[in-house]
């Protein structure tokens, strides 16, 4: 028998899953999760009424040995801290650079920078508790929030790269307009997927930044040779990785 159809229903937060498991190919993560729920009805019952985000933590607590569980948790915390600390340092540096008075001495500036870091950390904790009470999975929330911000950020880079008219004030106005446009679309047009917010925010940012800018910068001449060589190298590596993945998929099938 090359395939077996399984139906799993855990109720509550875990949606029913109907999958067809093909032994001739590797299972996707979704199929692996559904197969686990079929094979372990007690584990599926323990997840009843819980949000989908608790699937992996419950699996770790239930099936990993104590020593391995500690190593995995330590690795997760280390990876999270290595990402968060750089963000806090950047926010603190920007706050100290643009908001603190210039007349402060080095010692006072360092103290206020540390206070800013604590403030941003407290704000992050409040935001985390607020988003934890919302519906949806963590990955959905990450993409949702990122779609509001990523478009305007890309628009600023495009203005700095190609626009001669955009200046600092018009670029900031473009970012504000792009964020506002995304928030308005999210509030008034629920039928528009958050995937489109990236394009909307970027387009509004570029239009406002270039339209209201007054700078007339002369083009900067740079040697495109090194950049082209690096781009070619990246393209070659991408093609190599894609070829390996395609070959593995063909070999498995």
Features:
253 residues; extended; mainly alpha; 70% helix; single chain; 9 helices
Describe the protein in words.
The protein is mainly alpha-helical and 253 residues long. The protein has three domains: 3-63, no CATH class; 65-135; 137-221, no CATH class. 70% of the residues lie in helices and 5% in strands. It has helices at residues 29-39, 41-46, 55-63, 66-99, 106-132, 138-162, 168-188, 195-211, 225-252, and strands at 3-8, 17-22. It has a two-stranded antiparallel ribbon with strand order 1-2. Strand 1 and strand 2 (17-22) form a beta hairpin. Helix 6 (138-162) packs parallel to helix 8 (195-211). The protein is extended and about 65 Å long. The model is unreliable at 1-24 (pLDDT under 50).
Q: What's the layout of helices and strands?
A:
Layout: E1 3-8, E2 17-22, H1 29-39, H2 41-46, H3 55-63, H4 66-99, H5 106-132, H6 138-162, H7 168-188, H8 195-211, H9 225-252
Antiparallel strand pairs: 1-2
Tell me what portion of residues adopts beta-strand conformation: under 5%
Biggest sheet statistics: 2 strands, antiparallel
- Element-level helix/strand string: EEHHHHHHHHH
The counted number of beta strands is 2
Helix content: over 70%
Tally of discrete structural domains: 3
| Residue windows where pLDDT falls under 50 for at least 5 positions | 1-24
* Shape category: extended
SS content category: mainly alpha
What's the end-to-end separation, in Å?
16 Å
Based on CA atoms alone, the radius of gyration comes out at 25 Å
**Side-by-side strand order of the widest sheet:** 1-2
Mean pLDDT: 80
> Counting H and I runs of at least 4 residues, what is the number of helices?
9
């Amino acid at each position: 028998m090359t395939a077996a159809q399984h139906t799993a229903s855990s109720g509550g937060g875990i949606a029913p899953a109907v999958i067809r498991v093909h032994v001739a190919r590797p299972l996707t993560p979704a199929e692996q999760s559904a197969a686990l729920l079929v094979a372990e009805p007690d584990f599926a019952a323990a997840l009843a009424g819980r949000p989908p985000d608790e699937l992996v933590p419950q699996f770790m607590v239930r099936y990993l040995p104590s020593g391995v569980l500690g190593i995995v948790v330590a690795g997760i915390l280390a990876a999270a801290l290595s990402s968060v600390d750089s963000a806090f340092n950047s926010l603190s540096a920007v706050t100290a650079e643009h908001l603190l008075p210039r007349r402060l001495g080095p010692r006072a500036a360092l103290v206020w920078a540390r206070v800013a870091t604590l403030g941003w950390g407290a704000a992050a904790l409040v935001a985390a508790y607020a988003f934890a009470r919302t519906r949806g999975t963590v990955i959905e929330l990450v993409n949702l929030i990122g779609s509001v911000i990523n478009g305007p950020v890309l628009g600023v880079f495009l203005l700095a790269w190609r626009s001669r008219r955009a200046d600092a004030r018009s670029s900031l106005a473009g970012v504000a307009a792009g964020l506002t446009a995304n928030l308005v679309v999210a509030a008034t047009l629920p039928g528009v997927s958050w995937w489109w917010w990236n394009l909307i925010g970027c387009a509004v940012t570029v239009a406002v930044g270039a339209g209201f800018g007054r700078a007339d910068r002369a083009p900067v001449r740079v040697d495109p040779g090194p950049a082209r060589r690096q781009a070619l190298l990246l393209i070659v590596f991408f093609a190599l990785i894609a070829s390996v993945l395609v070959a593995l998929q063909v070999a498995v099938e």
